[in-house]
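[PROTEIN RECORD]
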Amino acid sequence: MNLKWKFILVQGLLLVLIAVLLYFTLREYKWYFLASEVGYILLVVLSIYLYKSIFRPLKLLQQGTEALKDQDFAVKLRPTSSKETNELISVYNKMIDTIREKRISQQEQHFFLELIMDALPVGILILDFDQQISSFNPKAAGILNIENTDIGKPLANLAHPISNDIAAIPLNESTIVRDEGAKYFRCLSNRFMHRGFPRRFLIIEEISNEIMETEKNAYGKVIRMMAHEVNNSVGAINSILDSLLNETELDDTEAKEYLRIIMERNESLNHFMANFAEVVRLPVPSKENFSLKQLLNDVFLLMKVKISREQIDYRISLPEEDVIIQGDKEQLGQAFINIILNAAEAIEGQGTIDIQLNAFPIIVTIKDDGIGIDQEAAEKIFTPFFSTKPTGQGVGLTLVREILHNHKTKFSLKSENGWTRFKIQF
């Protein structure tokens, strides 16, 4: 029995009881009995009004509840003559408006997300709570050859070669997988919350062209860097050999000194290029104790013939005591050669290149009074393949940076007061 019939039953019993009491109590008193009958009729009318006041709003709210069950959020209740009922109706109507707005917003967002997923150049694969395929976008269908009939199947059960690999990717991790051919895919596994529970999704991106382009650029960088280093050393050696062939005033001691430098530079270059080709990157420094003073002097003599011309004053200042450091002699020699060549190329006409070695602390300074480095170039000077020269390859200073960085030295390159200084502190 619902509330309405309970109210009718209780109210009806009360009215019958009152009528019986009035009859047996006042039937002998005519005027009192008539007055009580009028009061009784008023009581009945008041009961009917009370019934309508209580159950009409309840009926309206029941209609609203039925509309909510049917997910019909367009139904709103009209105000009544009851203030209390109108307050309930107002709350209900506001709730309906809020639900309808949220529902419309969610539908719009869902539609927008579907459009984005369909337009994305990467594959999106969403799994359900049981780790089975729930939905996917067209790109994922194209990558994994998924059809609608695969919905509800475990990811690992797909026939695609990478399905097992991507199914095993841990959450919040990204990895690169390759299929049976030459295609590479970058895959990311993550999750989102749905109805209070986590659901997993996968992002799959084909990066075959990207990897091939990266490999191509890496090969190009290696080739250009190797060619750059060969040209630097071979050019200096050829200049010395040309001078030895055409110079008649050199004594045997001087000639032997130049020949020794040539042989050492050839051996160093051969060893350097062999290591470079073996690992396709700059080798880890093979550190040993050697004389930095002797290395700088050898590099100075090697480069002297190549860059010595009337317009350039090429000089070196070394301390009296020997300076012993630990490092890769071959790599540091290549670095000094590159720095000196950059200094020479920066001089247009007359100029000076000055090499200085300080013993305490150990600092090598190579400076020139050439055209200098402007602010814009200073920010990019160590960027791979960036060069301020029209025919430059942008390789020399990149190699210098890597060598000095691997030796854990402090170095700087800046122009001020008419000089450009490359300072290296060991």
Residues 30-69 form the longest helix (40 residues).
